[in-house]
Amino acid sequence: MAAMMDDEGGGMVLAAADVSGAAAGSGGAASDEAMVPEFPALTAAELGTDSKEYRRVRVPPHRLTPLRTEWNVIMQPVVEHLMLQIR
Residue ranges per domain, the chain? Predict the structure, then answer.
């Protein structure tokens, strides 16, 4: 790779052929697969899915009326996209 120092002393100047050649030789499917870690599957006990989790969110009284009016707008994306149950 032929690189020259910039006259201003701040950086390097690379030829376009050097950059494209370096990019072509540095990657590929084999190198991407080598970087992906492999972990063993978790058991049900390790996941902790045996109990349900509930959370209660407190809402101040002055925000309760606007929350009730917009409840369907708020609830729909949470249920559809996040697949959470809201009661």
Answer: 55-87
pTM above 0.70, yes or no: no
* Number of C-beta neighbours around residue 86 at 10 A: 11
> CA-to-CA distance for 4 and 13, rounded, in angstroms?
5
Element (H, E) at 87: none
Q: How far apart are CA 31 and CA 81, in angstroms?
A: 34
Structural contact between residues 15 and 9, judged by C-beta atoms closer than 8 angstroms: no
Mark residue 69 as left, alpha or beta (left: phi above 0; alpha: psi -120 to 50; beta: remaining): alpha
**For the segment 29-38, what is each residue's pLDDT rounded down to a tens digit?**
556 667 888 8
Which helix (H) or strand (E) segment is 65 a member of? helix 61-69
